[in-house]
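Hello again, I could really use a second opinion on something today. I've been staring at a protein lately and its backbone has me curious. You're getting the sequence in one-letter code plus the fold written as tokens. I'd be grateful if you could look everything over and explain what you see. No rush at all, and the record is pasted right below:
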Amino acid sequence: MMTRFEELGWRQSPMGEISLRRRFDAEVQADVYEVKLDEDFLMSSLFTVAERELAHLGLERVVGEDLDVIVGGLGLGYTALAALEDPRVRDLRVVEYSEAVIDWHERDLLPDTVGLAADDRVNLACADFFAAAMSDEGFDPERPGRTWDAILLDIDHSPSRVLHSPHAEFYTPEGLRAMTAHLKPEGVFAIWSDDPPDAEFMQVMFDVFTGVKAKRVWFDNPYTRGRSSNTVYTAIRA
């Protein structure tokens, strides 16, 4: 008998209970993997186009070789995996708040990203991305002040719909300026959003960065039998 639903892992966190589940979806006739925070759906293996494009669009704007890259938020691993497709990536540090999410990948519970945690270029760091971004020390405790070629962020639903209220401070000019201290000159910041381009957030980005772009990424939605979109913002450190 086919299993319609299975919870693969869960753990309590300061933001709520985070869980990974697999369910058979009759609409697409395939297993779908989903991450939830309490009753809030965070991500699904059915919709990964924009998560991949976050890496592609961000890294295509980076000039140079031997790139050191930060991914904020591990999730189902699609952004990190797409970043590794760029042969210039030398060091990929994924900053993930939840030990449970890192454990799922270390145990290869997600078929599409099997082997991600074992890649020699990858470091899965259990830490608060936002605290690190706005600190003087930055993202590498062993090398305080280390700078990076790109920072790719996919944690909150959008800059105006955060998962945890303390995150809101990051999406201000002051928060973003603090983060730029951890980018190399002309380094790239890219962020995923579930919402259409937001004029107010674009202005915040223009206050801090140059070359600010917002691109809507469209994908097929089998539930609506139409097209849906996310947004990827990219910008360059002035």
